[in-house]
Backbone:
DNA sequence: GATCGCATGTAAGTGGTTACATGATTTA
DNA sequence: TAAATCATGTAACCACTTACATGCGATC
């Protein structure tokens, strides 16, 4: 691993530790629930990065007896870690070109039949719809806690962004399916 | 390279060749213009994959004298290539969890000051807005050609999807900036 | 006594990107 | 004559995922 360059994933971990101390396992759980609609991490990435962060003095660790299972290692952020994290946070985000296999297949729709394209759209719509349900439950959940946590307004914003995109995509899917069904000619 | 497993990128190339024969350079140009809002490719990936596709008999190549620069290699899809491509096209798309550094930073907004978060949102908004302009020009361009190309309705659909998402995000950005500006307390 | 949740970690593989090397032709 | 566009390719690196290995305690 290149020792000089820090990556977004390390800052994601650092940020989660800034909210509260966590084990590697906790970080994975956070990624799967709270960050799910815009981030993901695997154990095979978390543990090596946690070690690296510690070697560089950005985190400190503490062994704690676990109620269940073996002893666990709880990491927290250090002052150095916090200062690197805050610096990263100030930097503007450069755009990335995402790979969207769904749109790629839709783009090649001419080589398929209309029915298959409609199915592709329906399947995608259903998936987005499911995520929408999951996210809106999460949102209601954190709202019901009437949290005074300083992070709350920002967590709400990210969820709102996700829900908005999802709603816009499902509506577009519905319109597109209609369009295709009205379309005549081409491969049937 | 694992010889048995074919990846989406190979099918992206195959699909572009199904539309019309192309050089590696052409494929790169296509990715940068037509597919830009949902796909991207680098030369370092295109050329090795082009070779692999040819070795497996999914494409055929033809050396053609170039007007500019050295002799070029024009690839086209074979019957075998087409049949593998069509099979891929029928498979449903599984969801992927995207990494969105912008939302990650927004999520950690509590550690920043309000002004910085507003700047983050404004910067993101501007980027999306630029892409929106680029895409809407592209859409007008292909519409003005009054294309009878069988691919046209599907190209239009992907652009429409992109434009829709972008509009929805810019609106959300505007609302979020307003919210933050009304917000009091916290780090100023 | 099997399986689930907690908990940590590694080795091998994957699917790329970046930077470079090369070279012809056209345009400014 | 410098830079841009056309054109092909490779070596090194990168960041991450997958699958596996291990093991405790609680639940079914």
Residues:
């Amino acid at each position: 691993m290149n020792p000089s360059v820090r990556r977004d994933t390390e800052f994601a971990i650092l940020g989660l530790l800034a909210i509260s101390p966590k084990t590697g396992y906790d970080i994975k759980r956070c990624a799967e629930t709270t960050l799910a609609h815009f981030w993901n991490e695997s154990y095979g990435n978390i543990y090596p990065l946690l070690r690296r962060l510690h070697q560089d003095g950005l985190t400190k660790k503490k062994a704690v007896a676990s109620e269940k299972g073996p002893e666990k290692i709880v990491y927290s952020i250090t002052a150095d870690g916090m200062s690197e994290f805050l610096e990263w946070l100030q930097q503007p985000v450069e755009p990335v070109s995402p790979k969207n296999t769904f749109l790629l297949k839709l783009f090649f729709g001419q080589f398929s039949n209309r029915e298959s394209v409609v199915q592709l759209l329906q399947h995608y719509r259903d998936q987005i719809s499911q995520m929408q349900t999951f996210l809106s439950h999460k949102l209601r959940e954190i709202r019901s806690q009437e949290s005074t946590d300083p992070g709350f307004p920002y967590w709400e914003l990210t969820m709102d962004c996700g829900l908005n995109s999802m709603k816009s995509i499902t509506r577009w899917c519905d319109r597109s399916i209609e369009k295709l069904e009205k379309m005549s000619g081409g491969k049937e």
